[in-house]
Specification:
Layout: H1 2-11, H2 14-19, E1 37-38, E2 45-46, E3 54-58, H3 59-62, H4 71-74, E4 80-86, E5 89-94, E6 108-112, E7 115-116, E8 134-141, H5 145-148, E9 154-160, E10 170-178, E11 182-192, E12 197-208, E13 217-231, E14 234-248, H6 255-260, E15 281-297, E16 301-317, E17 322-339, E18 346-367, E19 370-395, E20 399-418, E21 426-445, E22 448-459, H7 463-466, E23 480-493, E24 498-510, E25 513-517, E26 523-527, E27 530-545, E28 554-570, E29 574-575, E30 578-579, E31 591-601, E32 605-614, E33 617-618, E34 626-627, E35 630-642, E36 648-656, E37 684-692
Parallel strand pairs: 6-9
Antiparallel strand pairs: 1-2, 3-8, 4-5, 6-7, 8-9, 10-11, 10-37, 11-12, 12-13, 13-14, 14-15, 15-16, 16-17, 17-18, 18-19, 19-20, 20-21, 21-22, 22-23, 23-24, 24-27, 25-26, 27-28, 28-31, 29-30, 31-32, 32-35, 33-34, 35-36, 36-37
């Protein structure tokens, strides 16, 4: 194994250095040779001339390894890093740090088609979604709050099964099992009833014992999507999702504990019981539903209006308390789009989006996993809404110019019910913020484009940060804000058989929100002053063998290499008497390099291989503790055969952490007592059978 690691280290940078480019948007299709289109910016446009950093993942890339998690697929996107500290516990950073995300996702706006999944409080439960129910993911990188509301990391747009216009009716059942008690069942059906109506239904059950103590997972999901062109000029979309998710939380270990027994949950101390004694876990039952209507008003003007709502019941027994959260959200999104049909080829969109959230939060003493005496209770309301306008023009079929601006308003009302009772609601206002964006792209040749953009980022504190686990309403938190400047190049060679992309950006953030933990591992948040973020993202995607160039043995060969370099530093940042100026930003590695290979052979035999190198990263603001670098190799072999003309079977066997690396994933940041480490699984296997009709 040391020899293999040494060879990997030597070869690690070769693909990227040879091509010096970034595939942010070309880890894109479902490994198909087609003209990639980006639909996230309200209208469909070619990827090559899109004047922003975009990556597109098809379903084949999302499910290239283990179908129970999004990690393998999403981590191929330069600039995006996803962690899973234990089964079901996701964290995601897009051009940023994970120091705001102990669980859930913050600072990134996430949609499912036209439906915002990020709630009014700024949090996103991405772990509620089953990967097999996703048809495609678009990742729009960098601050883009002009038409998507407050964010400073970027936007992710998930395309669920059922909204695709093309394709045939199909039904599939997947059964899988593996190491550490992993078992999964997934059912998906997509039915094109006629030219006007199609729908999908996706259901899944996933369970796992987990690698560590106190990491069991039990997850059930149901999702349905419906698309109805009820007249030639109007259509309806319906999306509904229900998820019942329960996963245990083991807690962090000190370095000594991690080295001695990485599978252990956090042990008891003189002042606190263990995670296992307290039955630390999260139970989340969420119902989400939305309806979207699009209508053409003449040949050039259209309107899209969406309404949506969600309800989440969350229980969180923790070491120091037992928390209940009742979260309800209602919202709308509506915009008009005008597209010209003359030689200037321009378009204009104006619209608005808003959400209202109600959050009832109560904390009790936790006695061995049973709630007892009430510690604190609060009611909070969050109201956010924004207005936006976007204009785009294509000049002489070469020069694309876009401009957008958004006006954001965000405020929180809260009332304390225990231990003291407020007579009236108090208000926290984050003011009114303008968020402009300008971007441009120019075709130097028919297959080579250069682009540049400048945009404003803004991210208000979430409800989970304002009212964190310390049971205190933090009225001192301020929103993150800053400006991002970016340039990029994009190539498409040999009829899109070779696609490359590279970008460089600088983002200067003010009032960055940093997660801290006190001596009882109870989290709280504070503003960290200024952060200077500089980065390079590059990748190359190659379709080495395609159906048109296949032979009797090799039917297709796809490769992708992506590189992310972070130069993230604190600016002015002082905590008490300690100054952390110019330190590396906590929880951000300098380098992430991912190689992907997919090989399809004769007789429906296929191989998927992925290698992820992540360099070491600081675990505290003082930069005195680091998570070590690691090489993670995942591999999957599959064989397809037919039972009949319409019934296809696919057998597969996969291995995760092939090199049996000892590494920590989903680290606890700024943990009191040095309890940073959450051990990732050792070498483990999975196998399954997928039937498609």
């Amino acid at each position: 194994m040391p020899v293999i690691k040494s060879v990997l280290s030597c070869l690690l940078f070769i693909p990227t250095c040879l091509y010096a480019q970034d595939a942010k948007k070309d880890t894109i299709t479902s490994y198909q040779l087609e003209t990639a289109k980006v639909s996230g910016y309200l209208t469909e446009q070619p990827l090559l001339t899109t004047p922003s950093s975009v990556s597109i993942l098809g379903q084949k890339a999302i499910l290239s390894q283990n179908s129970a998690t999004l990690l393998s697929g999403l981590n191929t996107v330069p600039g995006l890093r996803m962690e899973e500290r234990s089964p079901g516990s996701y964290r995601l950073a897009l051009r940023g740090s994970l120091i705001r995300s102990p669980f859930g996702i913050r600072n990134v706006k996430i949609y499912s088609d036209e439906f915002p999944l990020t709630d009014a409080g700024g949090n996103t439960y991405l772990n509620l979604i089953d990967p097999a129910s996703i048809a495609q993911v678009e990742v729009l990188k960098g601050p883009d709050g002009s038409i998507f509301g407050p964010n400073s990391g970027g936007v992710m747009i998930i395309k669920p099964n059922g909204f695709q216009k093309d394709g045939e009716s199909k039904t599939a059942m997947n059964l899988a099992g593996g190491s550490f008690g992993f078992a999964q069942q997934q059912f998906s059906t997509l039915q094109h009833i006629n030219k006007k109506y199609r729908f999908s239904f996706d259901q899944s059950f996933t369970r796992s014992d987990g690698y560590r103590e106190q990491t069991a997972l039990n997850k059930k999901t149901f999702q349905t999507a419906h698309y109805w062109d009820y007249t030639p000029i109007a259509s309806l979309k319906l999306l509904a999702l229900y998820s019942d998710l329960n996963y245990q939380t083991p807690g962090g270990l000190t370095l000594e504990q991690y080295q001695e027994n990485p599978r252990a949950a956090r042990p008891a101390t003189a002042n606190a019981p263990s995670a296992k004694q307290q039955k630390a876990a999260i139970d989340n039952k969420t119902l989400y539903a939305g309806l979207s209507h699009k209508i053409k008003i003449g040949d050039r003007l259209s309107n899209t209006t969406t309404i949506f709502g969600s309800s989440s019941k969350v229980e969180n027994p923790f070491i120091t308390n037992y928390e209940f959260r009742d979260e309800r959200n209602l919202g709308y999104r509506s915009y008009f789009s005008y597209e010209s049909q003359d030689q200037w080829n321009w378009q204009l969109q104006v619209g608005t989006e808003g959400q209202k959230g109600w959050y009832d939060i109560a904390n009790y003493n936790n006695h061995g996993g049973t709630p007892t005496d009430l510690q604190a209770e609060d009611k909070l309301e969050n109201w956010q809404h924004f207005y936006y306008a976007r204009a785009k023009m294509i000049i002489a079929k070469k020069w694309t110019v876009e401009g957008a601006i958004g006006l954001n308003k965000n405020q929180v009302a809260y009332k304390q019910l225990h231990p003291t009772v407020s007579l009236q609601k108090d208000q926290i206002s984050f003011g009114t913020t303008w968020m402009p964006k300008m971007s441009t792209s120019y075709l130097l040749t028919p297959n080579f484009a250069i682009r540049g953009s400048i945009s404003s980022g803004f991210s208000a504190p979430t409800i989970a940060e304002i009212r964190s686990s310390d049971n205190r309403i933090n009225t001192e938190l301020k929103p993150e804000s800053g400006y991002n400047q970016e340039i990029g190049l994009r190539w498409e060679w040999m009829n899109r058989r070779l696609i490359t992309d590279i970008s460089y950006y600088q983002y200067k953030m003010n009032n960055a929100i940093i997660r801290q933990l006190n001596e009882n591992a109870v989290e709280y948040y504070q503003n960290a002053g200024k952060i200077k973020q500089k980065g390079i993202e590059s990748s190359i995607t190659g379709f080495i063998v395609t159906p048109s160039t296949a032979n009797h043995v090799v039917k297709s060969l796809y490769i992708n290499s992506s590189l992310t370099y972070h130069h993230y530093r604190f600016g002015t940042y002082q905590v008490g008497k300690d100054s952390y100026d110019n330190n590396k930003l906590t929880a951000v590695p300098d380098w992430i390099i991912v190689h992907t290979l997919q090989l399809d052979l004769a007789h429906q035999i296929g191989f998927n291989l992925q290698h992820n190198y992540t360099s070491k990263m600081p675990l505290n603001d003082a930069n005195t503790a680091f998570a070590e670098s690691f090489h993670l190799i995942q591999a999957k072999m599959q064989w397809g055969f037919k039972f009949s003309t319409n019934l296809q079977a696919n057998l597969y066997l996969g291995v995760d952490n092939l090199l049996n690396e000892k590494y920590s994933l989903g680290n606890d940041i700024n943990a009191f007592g040095g309890r940073y480490y959450n051990a990732a699984p050792t070498r483990n296997f999975f196998a399954g059978l997928k039937l498609s009709y």
